[in-house]
Here is the input.
Amino acid sequence: MTLRTFAAAGLAIALAGCTTIPTSADPISSRWVGQSAGKFFAAFGPPISDTENGAGVNYTWKGGYKTVRVPAKYAEGADGKRGKQISPARTQYLRCQAEIATSSDYTIRNIRVVGDIPGVNGPSYCAEFLAPAQPTQ
Here is the structure.
């Protein structure tokens, strides 16, 4: 009987070590979920609307307005010279919109991007604006 008890205890300990911690591949959620909504709104501006949801509030936020000039792109020509133009120079208007769900204590429970465009350095301007990459030390 004691062998069974020890085996059960060993199995319980082994299984307890196998718990998974959910991680988010979304850099915005990784950065802001669990933080105070006040900290978010202080950094990026106030929400444009809010809706009560029982135990908390859902906010709609828009911001990050920025105009950038994207230079023309050229193919590489012979001997390192500039080749044929691939895309013309253009002006790009950057912006972001997100829905933020908070709990009753004003902590962000969920943040969902609902309006995004390609950024200057990647596929998501919202990710660049709301969760900029931290420099490695």
In short: Confidence is low (pLDDT under 50) at residues 9-23. The CA atoms of residues 37 and 106 lie 6 Å apart.
